[in-house]
Predict the 3D structure of the following.
Amino acid sequence: MSAALEVVAGVLRNPQGQVLLAQRRPGGDLAGLWEFPGGKREADESAGSALVRELREELGVSARECSPLIRVSWQYAHQAVRLDVYTVECWQGTVQAQEGQALRWSPLAALTRDSMPAADWPAVRALRLPPRLLITPDSSDLRALADAAQRALAGPRCLLRLRLPQLSQVESRALAAQLLTRAQARHGDVLLGGDIDGALRLGCGLQLNARQLATLSARPLPESQWCGASCHNTQDLARAAVLDCDFAVLGPVLPTPSHPGAPALGWPRFAALCATAALPVYALGGLTHADHERVRALGAQGVAGIRGFWPGLAAA
């Protein structure tokens, strides 16, 4: 098997929030599909240097401020690729096609997987997903949970995962229904844990558990609803990709009181697992908001957390 092709791509946005796409030219691989602009990384280049060079050669612009978005490992029929995608917050110059390729600006919501190379689609999911995933602490106080969740949803955009072992399924679904409108109005969502039927009925998101990850044969929700998976190793991440999950929650990264005795991955192992993933990854386990930039630098989507993420509600 040949070595993976190292590729970089950049996400540029115009003042209207549209993203720039370049069309692959006739006669080459994946001809006619629309992708984030970029190209092959040379053997002696860092990913950042390769991105600056490719954007200058393809678009005639000089990238000034770039942040890592996601690293995607993808196996095409003819070639394995490792794609490093960056958001380009600032550039100098006017975007113009330098190599005869077609360019267009598109709203993020208008992107479709059939029109893009498969390796680019996880980057679209990463752009659409919030940077935080909040997990409810154990509590039997439904009113306190609802109040704390409302306050959390009033903050920065997030996914809200309801993990409520002390509540009945009926109570959990009722709370999800109560919170769903506010969450989606702020471009976030509510996730039920393992309750496929409840997610389908409510139109909310879902986080698959380990048993479901191992036994399901297909994605259980339509593409319009977020579907994630709890993952702990390479096999879990690969299985989540096979099931076409939108994201993975990977951990525990560090020891955590909510899972005493669970072996922690540690930062080096977490980074290595992220590098093999084909979907956005949230880091979970012993982390706080202060770890967000660190996990982003390692190629993760953001931080998932329980303790320390909930104003006015302590974990049981």
Summary: The chain has a mean pLDDT of 92.
